[in-house]
Structures are given as structure tokens and as C-alpha cells.
Sequence to fold (248 residues):
Amino acid sequence: MDEVTVVVAHSERATLRVGDVFLKVDTDPARLDVEVRAMSLAPVPTPEVLWRKPSVLAIGALRGTTLGRLGGPSAGTPAAWAAAGAVLRELHEAPPPPWPGRAGRSTAALAAELDAECALLVTNGTLPADLVTRSREIAGAALRPWTPAFTHGDLQVAHVFVEGEKVTGVIDWSEAGRGDALYDLATFTLGHEQHLDDVIAGYGTGVDRDVIRAWWSLRSLLAVRWLVEHGFDPFAPGCEVDVLRSLV
Fold:
């Protein structure tokens, strides 16, 4: 009999694995609606949708393994990272969905959220004020006009599966929608800066490295407090706080 494995769990979502089936449980059914619709539109490999209930989505397992994880090494070859870059280009060049995604927040709203979060990080003593101030300055380069693209919205490296040098699928599409393509590239390479050249080699032109660095800083600043409050450790080696320190 297959065992039940908890892949990830917090107060908003949980993902369980039973054999070759993954069950995604979400407190907000709308996120699952987005996930199913985005996977049906994305021109890249995605998991098979097995069935759907209001708050539960069942999907099939993908072949291969993830390229890595934040805070850990990557077993992927440079060619595998380049292949992921090529898949990202294919996604970003597809017609964008009609709804805004996580990577599509307005610059004004994002700047206001970022400033409020930075103030809390300092007030609560979560991070040193000088680190927050310098990181906020770096993050400012991400707050610029961008051309809407079909974005994944949460393209962590652990969400891309490869088999050898071929991408077999991309998971977790609940934040997908219209957005800034460089947000996806930055999320994918967060904590794996050494593979950015490989990804760009597969992706092609149109990548502003300063904006990628800005998104690394911005995403990390917005994530630290949420991660702490939900039982994760952004202070672990190679994770969000280390990313911020490496940029200043």
C-alpha cells in the first residue's frame, strides 16, 4: 500500500502524495481554478489533471526530478538549466491569459507593499535596518514598466522537473497570469545565481541582469516575514536572507 507523504503544508495550502498522485488542498478554491486553467493554456509540459473538487485538485506525477531547491545544490547540468530557459521563453511568448497573476501586480501597489514590509522587518527586529535599506534600494530597479507576458508567478526551481537534459514538466500554477517575464526568471534562479548564465543561454535576449537582481531582492524582502510566520526558515544557508546579504 502506498504511504501518504506530506510534500508541503501550512495554514493556506497542503500538498500530499499518494503513489503517483498528488493531492493539492487549498483554502481558496479560486487558486485551484487558476491552476487548472493556466495548465490548460500553457504551451509547456504540465502535470495531468486527474480530477477536481472545490478545494482539492488531483494531478499525476511527472517523470524525472526537480532541478534543485532553494538552499540546496542543483544536480542539473548546464544543458538542463538552459533547457529550462528555453521552456520559459516558450511560455513567455505565448498569448498571456486574460487575468493578472502574481507577477502582474502594478508597480505602485508593489512599491507600497514593499515599503510597508520593509518597515515591519525593521520595527520587528527581523532584519538589520542597514540590510533592509540597501536591499530596498536594489529592489527599486524592478519597479519599472514591463510588457505583459504569460507568467508562471511562482517558478521556484523545485517546480521544474527534468529528465537528463529535457524538461518533463512544470508544477504549481496557482499564481499564473499576465505579468513581468523577468519575475519568473528571477524566481527560478533565486539562490542559484551561478546558473543564471545557463538559463539566459537557453532563454535568449531581453534579459536585464540588474532587474533580475532587483527581483531577487524584492521577492526575498516580501517573503521573509511570511516564511517565519508559517514555519519556514528564510535564515537557512542559501535561502532568502543569504540572498539579500549576497546582493548588498
